[in-house]
Amino acid sequence: MSDDLREALQRVQEGRLQAADALRQNLDALRSDACSQAFVRDFAASALACAEAADAQRRAGLPAPALAGLAISVKDLFDVAGFPTTAGSRVLAGAAPAAVDCPAVARLRRAGAALIGHTNMTEFAYSGLGLNPHHGTPLNPATRRIDGLARIPGGSSSGAAVSVAAGAAWAALGSDTGGSIRIPAALQGLVGFKNTARLTPTEGTVPLSPALDTACAITRSVRDAVLLHEILADRQVKPSARPLRARRLAVVKEIFQDGLDAATAAAFERSLAALAQAGAQIETISLPPLAGLVSYRVSSVAIEAWAWHKPLLSAREAEYDPRVARRIREGEAISGAEYLERLAARRAFIAAMEAQLRGFDAVLSPTVPVVAPLLQPLLDSDTDYVAANALLLRNTSIVNALDGCAISLPCQGADELPVGLMLWSTALQDDTVLDLALQVEAILTKAGH
């Protein structure tokens, strides 16, 4: 397969690749061992029909749609007409098929995407690890190629990332509430872009936290991230064309670099060195507003999740993943007054952070502090599960609380376990972050990352 979606599109448009042939290769990958347990259902027949229609349209001399009948996977919390939406859960297994596509899926379909299937996920998107006791946990295909060990895929968009890493899809529609796009992208050597939440519609999805949920995509390259964002947000990215030496980048002292493992620390330092050598202005700064953040994030997600799940938990809690049910029930004890206090605290946090970051184009940090953990200890121990989940969500969730935008791109060396470099900023700085990421990706590629 081609390296990324843009390259595949060029081959299709030039007649060197048939979309239907590419789709059959995607389906072969979907059914391979590398993609085992990554999908809860496939849309093989409709996807192939879409690819064949795109080929026929091109042969007739008609303009090809933007995605030209190439395969895109869809996380199992987005409505796809004709299929149930089950959010990785047995609780919704009897749900009726969706009558219409949700807006994000409709935009992909209008762009000519061959929607290949609903991908597996953490039940109800409530964990950054990607474990699922109902459908099984897909193993991380990127790390298996390096050390052969069974490591987690990251979550909650676990199957979404695996579908791209294993070659079943060129890109994956997913969601990011506290890091659910960027975590699996980082752990699997992919690109994950979390846009400013308000730019993409989340209607027609199973919610986790409406205040934080973001519809966005996992891709193989930054230029693919730009393409998918333009489709999902129905807007054009406008790069500034400013050179890297004219950029002002920050590295934060607090929190983000605590507890890094050796591989992540080394890859992050090499990345900073490569960017500095290319002319980037990098300043180490302190962000005092970070001190009171954690309590806000936990409380807001739990109470919003509890509001949606209360009737289901009352009737069918035994069918939930017990770890997910426990986390949702944390919201039961949070009063309405406390919730409003947390929302006010978030507004104050956003204002303080925006003031602190004014003048910087973006902040650089490790996406997650460690490489993909081994799966078995997290299956065996609730204590290990809770600790790993908190660690993997720590850096990424700060951006969600900020109502910001962020992109994770691979920064590891050849034959090293995947490590993500996160570029992030405040709300509506999406074009700046994407523009910078294109430059950073080119520098890291040249440096052998």
From TrEMBL:
Q: Which PANTHER family match?
A: AMIDASE AMID-RELATED, TRANSAMIDASE
A Pfam short name: Amidase
Q: What is this protein called?
A: Amidase
Q: Extract the InterPro entries matched here.
A: Amidase, Amidase_CS, Amidase_dom, AS_sf
Which NCBIfam families has this protein been placed in? PRK07056.1
Q: What is the lineage of its organism?
A: Bacteria, Pseudomonadati, Pseudomonadota, Betaproteobacteria, Burkholderiales
| Domain Amidase: residue ranges | 36-434
Question: What are the transmembrane regions?
Answer: none
PROSITE patterns reported for this sequence: AMIDASES
